Amino acid sequence: MHLNQHVCLMAEYNRVMNTKFYAVAASLPQEALHENKGAFFGSIFGTLNHIAVGDIFWLKRIAQTLPACPTLNPMQDIPWPESLSASVAPNLEALTARRIQLDGVFDDLSAALTEEDLVQGVRYKNIKGDLFNKKLFSVLMHVFNHQTHHRGQITTLFAQ
């Protein structure tokens, strides 16, 4: 399988799973959605929000690496989060809209990337200011695995 095919498959999988998780979240009472259950980001809503924050950080970093890529243009209108738990939406409806937008950017970006794009470096600084340079393919695999990791935590929170 080519790198691009793998990235497209992962983007599709994450979009499908995010759609399912947000549907379950929408079926919960507000109290359950926002209840602090002792998870790293507190609540189901807090964890869903954190996934979106991480995606925004990474998509904005990728946009800096690929400034001529039109599929990343929507990221220009989204501000950089101030922290890993910064609120990106005031409620589930707004967070769902942001999730749909971000998943669309991942889908479009994945379809547009070439094999050459995927092996180029993404230079970025983390929140602490440390400089890194990783291949774009590795960055995208990290992003998709980050989502999967936190959806696993949310599964536990749903069960509670």
List the SSEs and their pairings.
Blueprint: H1 3-26, H2 30-34, H3 44-65, H4 92-112, H5 115-119, E1 121-125, E2 131-135, H6 136-159
Antiparallel strand pairs: 1-2
Quick overview of this protein structure:
With 160 residues, this protein is mainly α. The chain has helices at 3-26, 30-34, 44-65, 92-112, 115-119, 136-159; strands spanning 121-125, 131-135.
Please tell me about this protein's structure:
The chain is mainly alpha-helical and 160 residues long. The chain contains six helices and two strands, in the order H-H-H-H-H-E-E-H. Helices cover 63% and strands 6% of the residues. The relative contact order is 0.19. The mean pLDDT is 96. Helix 1 (3-26) runs antiparallel to helix 4, helix 1 (3-26) packs parallel to helix 6 and helix 3 packs parallel to helix 4 (92-112). It is globular and about 45 Å long.
Mean residue pLDDT: 96
What is the number of E strands?
2
Global structural class? mainly alpha
Unreliable stretches covering 5 or more consecutive residues: none
Helix count equals 6
Question: Termini distance?
Answer: 39 Å
Query: SSE string, helix = H, strand = E?
Result: HHHHHEEH
Descriptors:
160 residues, mainly alpha, 6 helices, 2 strands, 6% strand
